[in-house]
């Protein structure tokens, strides 16, 4: 059974990984890249794991893309910029008017698309009903023709 001694540090491998990460962070991107290259040389899965951690752990692009991560949200970063004031009142008024006009145009376009979809649906439905009516009329005509008794050879008016 494994027991801890007084010299063993609590946390084990997690603590060692945290210390290694802190040590690499202090030395910058170069240390991370060197560790990744050494990992590939020594045992390729280690290098691959470090590469994955650097990409998904945001270590590789922490400084260059950090400002984008803070502003990304449901609307996207462009919507955030659109809401910012520049300090130039004339430009801000123009921007607000342009955004309002674009929103109005978007609403008009969406309503146009809805009307277009509705008219297409109505056209398809009308074509279906005409086809159904024609099929029903043909079935009725064939059923009526089958019900008429065949001639018995008698002339009209004779029984």
In summary, what is this structure?
By secondary structure, the protein is mainly alpha-helical.
Which secondary structure elements does this structure contain, and how are they paired or packed?
Layout (H helix, E strand, L loop, with lengths): L11 H16 L1 H14 L1 H13 L5 H10 L5 H7 L5 H59 L12
Helix pairs in contact: 2-3
General description of the model:
With 159 residues, the chain is mostly helical. The protein folds into 2 domains: 11-84, no CATH class; 92-145. It is built from 6 helices and no strands. The chain has helices at residues 12-27, 29-42, 44-56, 62-71, 77-83, 89-147. Helix 2 (29-42) packs antiparallel against helix 3 (44-56). The longest helix is centred in the C-terminal third of the chain and has 59 residues, at 89-147. It is elongated, with a radius of gyration of 39 Å. Mean pLDDT is 77; it is low at 64-75.
Helical content stands at: over 70%
Count of separate DSSP helical elements: 6
| Computed CA radius of gyration, to the nearest angstrom | 39 Å
For the largest beta-sheet, the strand count, sense and barrel status come to:
none
Tally of distinct domains = 2
Shape: elongated
Indicate the proportion of strand residues: under 5%
Structural class: mainly alpha
Q: Which segments are poorly predicted (pLDDT under 50) over 5 or more consecutive residues?
A: 64-75
**Secondary structure: number of strands:** 0
Kindly, what is the distance between the CA atoms of the first and last residues, rounded to a whole number of angstroms? Answer: 114 Å
Succession of helices and strands: HHHHHH
Overall mean confidence score, pLDDT: 77
């Amino acid at each position: 059974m494994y027991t801890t001694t007084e010299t063993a540090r609590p946390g084990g491998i997690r603590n060692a990984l945290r210390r290694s990460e802190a040590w690499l962070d202090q030395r910058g991107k170069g240390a991370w890249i060197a560790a990744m290259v050494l990992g590939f040389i020594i045992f390729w899965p280690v290098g691959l794991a470090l590469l994955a951690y650097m990409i998904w752990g945001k270590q590789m692009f922490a400084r260059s893309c950090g400002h984008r991560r803070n502003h990304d949200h449901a609307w996207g970063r462009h919507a955030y910029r659109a809401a910012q004031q520049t300090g130039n009142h004339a430009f801000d008024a123009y921007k607000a008017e342009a955004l309002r006009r674009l929103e109005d145009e978007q609403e008009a376009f969406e309503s146009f698309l809805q009307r277009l979809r509705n008219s297409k649906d109505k056209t398809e439905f009308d074509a279906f009903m005409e086809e159904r009516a024609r099929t029903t009329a043909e079935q009725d005509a064939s059923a009526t023709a089958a019900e008429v008794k065949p001639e018995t050879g008698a002339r009209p008016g004779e029984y």
